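Help wanted!
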Amino acid sequence: MIINRLIVKNWRNFQHIDVPLRERQFIVGPNASGKSNLLDIFRFLRDITKAEGGGLQKAVSDRGGVSKIRCLSAGQAPEVSIEIHIADTPDAPATWRYSLGFRQADREHCQTHLTHERVWRDGERLLDRPDADDNEDPDRLIQTALEQNAANAKFREIGRFLRNVTYLHLVPQLIRFGDVIQGKVIEDDPFGQAFLERVASVHPNTRRARLKRIERTLKIAVPQFEKLEFIRDKIGRPHLRTRYSHWHPTEEGHCENQFSDGVLRLIGLLWSLLESDSIILLEEPELSLNIGIVSKLAPLFARIPRIHQCQVFVSTHSSTLLTEPCIDGTEVLLLTPEKTGTSVKVSSDIEDIRILLENEFTVGEVVLSRTRPKDTAGVSLIQ
Ligand SMILES: Nc1ncnc2c1ncn2[C@@H]1O[C@H](COP(=O)(O)OP(=O)(O)OP(=O)(O)O)[C@@H](O)[C@H]1O
Ligand SMILES: [Mg+2]
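Answered by r_m:
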């Protein structure tokens, strides 16, 4: 299943979004145009459905409350709303539609109140809140039906799907200096701090198979790379260990604290892709990687959804990543900051982009040039 349409009102710097979505979706735009904010919509839905410590109140308060989420250019409109269409393929009619609206109840009580919650299956409406029970007891409106097992029996599949959304913005230093930092791991580990525990927690056969596949890729991507293995140290802590072919045969190998940034990020990226069976959100996967590898990421992001039936969202600034001729204009969302908020458009819906793409220009050439600030000359002249 994938989300094949997203309709949003007043979320962060977006007043209105209504876009179809593909299995592989690139998100491009200038700095601070809202790429991460857009990815956060899917994380927000996941946070509502989380089995432990989830729910609407927590998802909103983790983001600083409705006042931080609601678009600052929204004027008087108090409501934030999100609607997703879930289908088997990008062009299929939606099997599920889930729509949610919420607002801050009042200034005194920081609670978030649902303004609506609706669910459809194959066009038939299964839920339409507020309903008679909500009208009788308005306190019910602080919880979505989606987060309550007692209320979501008819559409639990949506919760199961959203709960598996994963987000990766791996920060190599957090893995490398994990022992020194000994910090609290942020919930859901967006920066890969607990990546090794994640690797350790899967069945040994699955782990071995995944690491073998990653090893094969690393052998191609990294000169003289020979071996990747999972080990535990004397006190049982998990580690990854690599070996390079030019080392003396008696050398044991290096553990993750000596891996290069690129190798760590590539391992994290490949592991997440192999692990995912729902939606995977990748922030700037090109960071630290050689352009030869970056140029091969787009085909990889196309292949993985076919094998695992998942959907990949990628925020990027990389023209190399988008130079791949197989990327279709419908797979790229272009974010453009405007007076009343950022607009989100499917790149091939923009006439001049579509014409250039039809004339064999690549998305990297055509779309990314639109995201460049108008006057960059002054950047070198910090005053
Ligand atoms: N409620 C809100 N209303 C309006 N703007 C908001 C709101 N919340 C956050 N923003 C703005 O969103 C911007 C950050 O967006 P985001 O981090 O998604 O950008 P990005 O495209 O990922 O940028 P980068 O390429 O630098 O990572 C900031 O400028 C912030 O002020
Ligand atoms: Mg960002």
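OP: Thanks! One thing I noticed: The longest helix spans residues 204-221.
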